[in-house]
Structures are given as C-alpha cells and as structure tokens.
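Continued from yesterday's entry.
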Amino acid sequence: MPLPTVLCIAFGTGLAAALAARNEIRLSARHPLLTRSYAAYAIFALLVLVPISVYFYIFHGDWFLLYLFDVRDIPSAVALVGFACEVGLGTLGFALGGSLVRSQRDNAVGAFVAIAVIGALVPIAIASDRLAVVGSYAEYHGGFGLTRFGEGAMLQGAALMIVVLVIGVAFLLTRVWMASSRQT
C-alpha cells in the first residue's frame, strides 16, 4: 500500500468507526473523541494501521513513497511525525464522523467513507506503473535492477499486510458496533 492509500484508509476507518459507534455517540454528552469507541479506534490505529505503514516504510520505503523521495534522505524524526499525522488523520475522520452522526447525518458519513475508499484506490490506479516494480529510488530513476511486484517478497508482504488490515478493520467495526448497540 502506497502512502496516499494508507492516508485515505486512516481517514476512512475513522469515519467508519464513528458510524459504527453512532448509538454511543448519540447517547453520550461527551465529545466523540472522549468515548470508548474512539479509544478502540485509537488502539486500532496504533496497533494495526501504523505498524502496517511502518512495515512498508522500512522494507519497501521508496515504493511506499511512489519513488518520489529517497527514503535514505528522510530524517527518522520526520517519518515519526508522519506516522503521528496518520493517527491524527484517522482521529479527524472519527471526529468528523462523530459530529455528523450526532446531527443525524449517517448517510453523509457513509458517503465520506465511500469517497475515502475511492481515494484509497485512485493512487493505485494512477501510479500503477510505479507500483508494478520494486526497487530503490536510484534503481527506479536509473532504470536498472527493478523486479516485478509479483516476483519477490513484496507480494507476500503486501498480501499479509492487507489480510491483517482487513481483519483489523472488521474486528474494530464489529467491536465498536456491538458495544454501541448494547448502550441502547
């Protein structure tokens, strides 16, 4: 998953978690970010979403950044801030979703989730030529030493991370929805 896709997933999962938590958010006088459902989302973001991003950044960093930047030139503190921003983007999605859910606009949240899903797929479609090959920044821009996406460990790692993400999102949404439903 390239970085733009991960960012759209972070925002979309925040929105989806708020939608799943709509009963808790509507019944609670607290701000949506002070609910148990947000705590569950924050745990998901910190234990599932960010580690997946870190995996891609560490093992396939230039590919993850769509060969726009050389990972070796990025200070580790900047990368750390980037991962924190990823959690912040998910938090923003949850806050926006919570605000819309509280004002009875569930359809708008669903539409934003759909837009986030489309937004996650667009970079893959637009940069498919870049994502089809795996190598370093220098190899990509020099046109040498590249391997096809399906020929190396990249495919196995990406498949595993996608499975972990899907299971994590399913568990998060189920847990939040069930906990929220018990409050009615």
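--- second protein ---
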Amino acid sequence: MYNERMNLKLESPVDIVKSYFMYGGHSIYSIIPKNDREYTIGISSEGILLGEIRDNGSWLINKTFISRDLSRPGQDEVENELICLLQKELKKRLTFPDLFVDQIRFNRNIVNSLTHIRKD
C-alpha cells in the first residue's frame, strides 16, 4: 500500500521497507477506543497510518497507509493535536535536560521526521 500510494514504483520488498523506514519510520500515534477495541491513527512525514492495538497493548499493527494528498480534514486535525502534544512534552522535558536525554532525542527525531522533505 505504501509503495502504491507514494507512487514509488519500487519492485523489491526490501527496497520498499528501506524507503519506508528511511522517510516514514518515525511516527506519533493517537489511540481511538471503539467497540471494545483500540484503533490507532499515526502521523509520519509522508502520511497517515491507520491500525489497531492488539494483544493487550503488546502490538500496534498498521493496516493502512494514506499519503498526504489523500488525507481528510479530520485526520489533519488529529495530526495538529499530536504535534502540539509532542511540542509541549518536548518543552517540558527541556526544563530538565539531564533527566530526559533519551526522551528529548526521541521527540526531536520525530519532530525532524515530520518536517523532513523527501529527497530522492
């Protein structure tokens, strides 16, 4: 789905996986409870990931990838909310940088990936 929606025209599954993790591997997620299940919406630099939580939170399974050109306004709202939460968390942790070195690095990586422009 990722290969097709991004119009990459890659043939090798390894090349597809490499491309995904090179450009879209960092994501932030929101969990949406519905009908006794937990669904997810993830935001990456290249699009939106829709999935679900399984095995009591042990697994997050992405089932669908939606490129940015196909996203809907409601999905854009979720993206903005997640980015705001991430920025607040980063700002809070920066007040005690010695205690949160790994989390700060992780949050910065996500922010950088969400604003990264693909260069082929």
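The first strand starts at residue 28 and ends at 34. The radius of gyration is 15 Å. Will compare against the first tomorrow.
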